[in-house]
């Protein structure tokens, strides 16, 4: 027997249950991983609340973790029991002591990264990789806007932007978070509770505004994001922390300067093992060189049994950087 988090109806954090289950043998292309650190992602709250409801109940939750290979399926030769690995996938169930994962969703965890660093940086780092390197290729010296810059994805984005020689303007919800984003490499910050985002972007760019905005906040920043873009700029809407953007009048894009909008997902960029390897090699190289540092605050490491509390804290906007569930904590 092992422990996992499951839920049988969507709702608040209270729907999450810590239960016993019997792990099944890995399928032919799967790897059975004993999770040592599990990444908490804001997307987990969308799944739990019903914004992205699971297809069947009871359902597991969570999409990334780092741990040790226990068993492999008959068709797997690229990893073996005892290997240290990290994985990210859209299928749910990583909030668990033991989890079976398709080989193509998993990478060998470099020796210089702890399980905690791996689980705190893999899904979020791969996300920053596709956003800054593929959805729109950020160039050295380029000024751009990135919302929620002190969050898990955000602090990695600040550091990655600095490594690229680019100038990230980070929006944040408090002065303390502004300081954290600055320390991580943000060129400038905007506290969106105090300042007008589009006005500040215009000031910071001498009226030019930016070619790309990365917006994971959604509903509450949508208009400001569009207003921060220069003519034919690109709006990258990649999350809904404040609620989804719905009912968009496309004429708005014309009125605001022939803008482009995309709504990407990590799993549209990581579709096979080759794409995963290529993106994770770039991420691991920046982590290995120290260009990107991952530190998880002690108060943001939760026991697996405390997933309810972890979700409450994440949704209350009290966290900065990544948060983890640690089996056995
Ligand atoms: P974060 O650690 O960034 O937490 C979310 C942050 O959003 C909060 O800390 C808060 O920062 C900000 N926020 C703004 N408005 C609200 C609100 N009304 N309620 C709660 N938080 C709010 O989470 P992650 O790093 O896990 O993810 C960041 C975003 O990226 C999420 O929206 C997620 O869905 C998205 N994402 C998208 C992916 C994709 O491929 N499309 C992949 C991975 C993540 P502050 O206090 O500074 O406002």
Automatic annotation (TrEMBL):
GO terms for cellular component: cytosol. Keywords: NADP, Oxidoreductase. GO terms for molecular function: mRNA 3'-UTR AU-rich region binding; NADPH binding; quinone reductase (NADPH) activity; zinc ion binding. SUPFAM superfamilies: GroES-like, NAD(P)-binding Rossmann-fold domains. SMART domains: PKS_ER (SM00829). The keyword Hydrolase does not apply. Its EC number is 1.6.5.5. It catalyses: 2 a quinone + NADPH + H(+) = 2 a 1,4-benzosemiquinone + NADP(+). Coiled coil: none annotated. Residues 11-325 form the Enoyl reductase (ER) domain. InterPro entries: ADH-like_C, ADH-like_N, ER, GroES-like_sf, NAD(P)-bd_dom_sf, QOR-like, Quin_OxRdtase/zeta-crystal_CS. It comes from the Bacteria. NCBIfam families: PRK10754.1. Belongs to the zinc-containing alcohol dehydrogenase family. Quinone oxidoreductase subfamily. This is NADPH:quinone reductase. It comes from Chania multitudinisentens RB-25. The lineage of its organism: Bacteria, Pseudomonadati, Pseudomonadota, Gammaproteobacteria, Enterobacterales.
């Amino acid at each position: 027997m092992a422990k996992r988090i499951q839920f049988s109806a969507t709702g608040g954090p209270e729907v999450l249950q810590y239960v016993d289950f019997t792990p099944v043998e890995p399928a032919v292309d799967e790897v059975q991983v004993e999770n040592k650190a599990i990444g908490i992602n804001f997307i987990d709250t969308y799944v739990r609340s019903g914004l992205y409801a699971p297809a069947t109940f009871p359902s597991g939750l969570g999409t990334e973790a780092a741990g040790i290979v226990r068993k492999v399926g008959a068709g797997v030769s690229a990893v073996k029991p005892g290997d240290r690995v990290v994985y990210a996938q859209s299928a749910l169930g990583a909030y668990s002591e033991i989890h079976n994962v398709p080989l193509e969703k998993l990478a060998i965890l470099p020796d210089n990264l702890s399980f905690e660093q791996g689980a705190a940086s893999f899904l979020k780092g791969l996300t920053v990789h596709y956003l800054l390197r593929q959805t729109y290729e950020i160039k050295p010296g380029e000024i751009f806007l990135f919302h929620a810059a002190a969050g898990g994805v955000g602090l990695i984005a600040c550091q990655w932007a600095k490594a690229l020689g680019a100038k990230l303007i980070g929006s944040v919800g408090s002065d303390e978070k502004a300081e954290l984003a600055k320390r991580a490499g943000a060129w400038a910050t905007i506290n969106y509770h105090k300042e007008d985002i589009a006005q500040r972007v215009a000031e910071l760019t001498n009226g030019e505004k930016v070619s790309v905005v990365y917006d994971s906040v959604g509903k509450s920043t949508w208009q400001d994001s569009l207003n921060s873009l220069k003519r034919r700029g690109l709006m990258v809407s990649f999350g809904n922390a404040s609620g989804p953007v719905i009912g968009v009048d496309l004429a708005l894009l014309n009125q605001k300067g022939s803008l482009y909008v995309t709504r990407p997902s990590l799993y549209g960029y990581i579709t096979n093992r080759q794409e995963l390897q290529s993106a994770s090699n770039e991420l691991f190289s920046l982590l290995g060189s120290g260009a990107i540092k991952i530190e998880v605050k002690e108060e943001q490491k939760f026991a697996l049994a405390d997933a309810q509390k972890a979700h409450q804290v994440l949704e209350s906007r009290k966290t900065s950087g990544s948060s983890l569930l640690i089996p056995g904590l």
